[in-house]
Design a protein that fits this description.
With 267 residues, the chain is an alpha/beta fold. The chain folds into two domains: 203 residues, 2-enoyl-CoA Hydratase, Chain A, domain 1, CATH 3.90.226.10; 48 residues, Lyase 2-enoyl-coa Hydratase, Chain  A, domain 2 (Orthogonal Bundle), CATH 1.10.12. The chain has ten helices and ten strands. It has a six-stranded mixed β-sheet, with helices on both faces. Helix 1 packs parallel to helix 2, helix 4 packs across helix 5 and helix 8 runs antiparallel to helix 9. The longest helix is centred in the middle third of the chain and has 17 residues. It is globular, with a radius of gyration of 20 Å. It starts with 5 loop residues before the first strand and ends in a 9-residue tail after the last helix. Belongs to the enoyl-CoA hydratase/isomerase family. One of its GO terms (molecular function) is isomerase activity. This is 1,2-epoxyphenylacetyl-CoA isomerase.
């Protein structure tokens, strides 16, 4: 039996998805795309899941696109038609990014080793990124004559500003995890030995928080980037109105007044 390309494990309300092509540094093929998207869809549909952790098996998080995959490998035959990379982005990467950014639960990336190209931006699509100290982020696209994809052109300027984003994207240099944390590209850099436990503790904490409010926070911040202040204030009022009618708000207030730990259940 063929080993799955995405390993799935559960610990309470936390589901961990591990990319599982370690010999190829977990680089993307069409098959890996399909399995990862299916795994994310399954987690989204499972009411028992309140947080997802995304990581990589072996010594890398994800080295990006496998350039030997038939979907992108140039045909060496003279006069052969070039590969339609736009089709690959639209068919595989676009749906994956859209699913990650619209998950009904928080998603934590635990970055072990290299995260390059699409792999780097896959991590940055997650809500919180924790990386081991030996990990690195590489926007490798210009080295093969391409632009950042997998949401990179949208994510990078929002995370680190246009000046740093252009430098990171155009030069394509390796960015160590400590530097990535220092400039605000990721949430946290920890010792390699502490990565799994740190990600697990963070995911467990998020799983015990009001899921609907966490997801609404992500969406409100994303939406506000394209709004003026007045429109953002109106949107805050709309979202707060909806959350104020949810059970988690009542539970949170009652727990605060009773000086007890809240038990949040909305999702």
């Amino acid at each position: 039996m063929t080993e799955p390309l995405v390993l799935i494990s559960n610990a309470g309300a936390v589901r961990t998805l591990s990319l599982n092509r370690p010999a190829a540094l977990n680089s993307f093929t069409t098959e890996l795309h399909a399995e990862l998207l299916d795994a994310l869809e399954s987690a989204a549909a499972d009411e028992g899941v309140r947080c997802v952790v995304l990581t990589g098996a072996g010594r890398a998080f994800c080295a990006g696109q496998d350039l030997a995959d038939p979907s992108v490998a140039p045909d060496p035959t003279p006069g052969a038609a070039p590969k339609d990379l736009g089709h690959v982005i639209s068919t595989y990467y676009g749906p994956l990014v859209a699913r990650l950014r619209s998950m009904p639960v928080p998603v934590v990336a635990a970055v072990n080793g290299v995260a390059a190209g699409a792999g780097a931006n896959l991590a940055l699509c997650c809500d919180l990124v924790v990386a081991g100290r030996s990990a690195s982020f590489i926007q490798a696209f210009t080295k093969i004559g391409l632009v950042p994809d997998t949401g990179g052109t949208w994510l990078l300027p929002r995370l680190v500003g246009s000046a740093r984003a252009l430098g990171i994207a155009m030069l394509g240099d390796k960015l160590p995890a400590e530097e990535a944390a220092r400039i605000g590209l990721i949430w946290q850099c920890v010792d390699d030995a502490a990565l799994a436990d740190t990600a697990a503790a963070l995911a467990s904490k998020l799983a015990g928080m009001p899921t609907r409010a966490l997801v609404a926070t992500r969406q409100a911040m994303n939406d506000a980037q394209g709004m003026d202040l007045r429109t953002a204030l109106d949107e805050e009022a709309r979202v707060q109105r909806a959350l104020g009618n949810a059970d988690d708000y009542r539970e949170g207030v009652e727990a605060f007044r009773a000086k007890r730990a809240p038990v949040f259940k909305d999702r």
